[in-house]
Every structure is written in C-alpha cells, then in structure tokens.
Amino acid sequence: QVQLVESGGGLVQPGGSLTLSCSASTSILFFNLLGWYRQAPGKQRELVASITNGGITYYRDSVKGRFTISRDNAKNTLSLQMNTLQPEDTAVYYCNAERKFPEGIQTYWGQGTQVTVSS
Question: How far is CA 109 from the centre of its chain?
C-alpha cells in the first residue's frame, strides 16, 4: 500500500515563505509523475506544480517565479518551496503521484496539509 504523507503547512504572513514536504512509503522512482495540488474552500482542486522522473517541471501561471518543486530520489521525498506567499495561496495542499500501468493510470494522494496566508 503506497502512502504519501505531507508536512510543513501552517500560518504565514503575506510575503512569507513555507516549504512543504511529501514523504513516500516507496521509492518515488516507482511513479511517472509527482505533483502538488491545492484546494481552497468552495473551489475545485487545482494543479500547482509537477515534476517528472526526468526532472521536467510544470507550474501554474499564478505561482511561476514564486514556487519551486523538487524531488530527492534518495530520500523518497517531494518538496514545494513557496516564497512571496499571498492570501490567494491559502488552501489545503495535496501531494500527488501517478504510475502508468498497461491497464491505465493509478493515482495516489496524501491527506493534505493546510496553508494559510494571513496577517
């Protein structure tokens, strides 16, 4: 059973920084794609950033230049460095992993960690 556990959320003032971490119970090389999603109250879950096994990254426009996604294959960890946080970044952040199988794609989710940006 694959488990993803997030940590690092909390309350931060506008302009501040936080680093989220996601620890996997298996080698993250098992997955084809790793990513961070977020869901604000009353809104749909949205992709924030992703990274492939080859290190190719994607960021949604609103976080480009402020957030950095990274992976540590030796520690089976995915991270999201978030700088210059704004109130609109407030959401529950979820770690996501995808694995392609011949019969389809299997998706795994962490339990989420709350990020609140407020003065």
Answer: 10
Give the pLDDT mean for 22-50. Answer: 96
104's CB contacts (< 8 A; 6+ apart) are none
By three-state DSSP, how is residue 5 classified? strand
User: Tokens representing 63?
Assistant: 């976080």
Task: Tell me the two tokens of residue 85.
Answer: 């946080």
pLDDT for the residue 1:
85
Which residues, 6 or more positions from 105, have their beta carbon under 8 angstroms from its beta carbon?
98, 99
- DSSP code for 57: E
Q: What are phi and psi of 61, to 5 degrees?
A: -55, -40
Percent of the chain with pLDDT strictly greater than 70? 100
Phi-psi label, residue 48: left if phi above 0, alpha if psi -120 to 50, beta otherwise: alpha
Distances (CA, A) of 82 to 43, 78, 102: 20, 13, 35
Q: Measured between alpha carbons, how far is residue 56 from residues 2, 32, 39, 52, 77 in Å?
A: 23, 11, 23, 5, 16
Cα–Cα distance between 50 and 30 in angstroms, integer? 15
